[in-house]
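Check my protein:
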Amino acid sequence: MSKEQVAPELVSKEQVAPDQVPAGQVTPDEAGPDRAGPDHAGPEQVRPEQAAQHYFTASPAAAHRPGLVQVVLPDLHFECVTDAGVFSPGRLDPGSRVLLETVPPPPARGDLLDLGTGYGPIALAMAARAPEATVWAVDINERALGLCAANAARAGLGNVRCVPPGDPGLPGQFAAIWSNPPIRIGKAALHGMLSGWLGRLGPGGQAHLVVQRNLGADSLQRWLQAGGWPATRIGSRSGYRVLQVTPR
């Protein structure tokens, strides 16, 4: 895949549509470890060509800046390696935290999907909570997939498979999907991505999506319902909604 191409099946959370964020500006969660959080004084300014390389490539051009993130949940603790060029490299982003502290336990067995895995905190939590299941951690970002695989190995979780969206080994159905989806890619791309993956929910399966209220959680819920997917809000905290979606 060339640097100009983006796979239609999945756009990484890295890949923010230019009509959603001003050119040359990144959000705190997309900034590096030394730019995220309350001490961040303002948006990082980068040249437009740098922004394009950062957001729209399977192989990020950002210089490597390895880091560590402590993922501490009520029932789990992981130390994850991170790097520049992946989503929220400086901390467990608040949306993923709300999701992981809200969702019911995953199915004990079967194929489970983390859609847009990044460096893998959601996939690792799924795998630890369902050790007899196989967790498919999917992302277009090759750097993210490498980090996810390394983090699964560090955690001793042999039931995680970190793969791109077109991997031939991906199953046709999933017993559960968890995702902090890339809302900023724009509605058309987001709806196309979700339609494809939600269509692979098996009978009795459930998807759980976390979406920031200010970025369209309620409109996404209405779109899902209008498309025939029963969608219920099961949690709301810190400006984020957790939606439970079942097959249509």
In short: The domain at 92-245 is CATH 3.40.50.150 (Rossmann fold). Confidence is low (pLDDT under 50) at residues 1-8, 14-56. The chain has six helices and nine strands. Strands lie at 67-72, 77-82, 111-115, 134-138, 160-163, 174-179, 201-212, 231-237, 240-245.
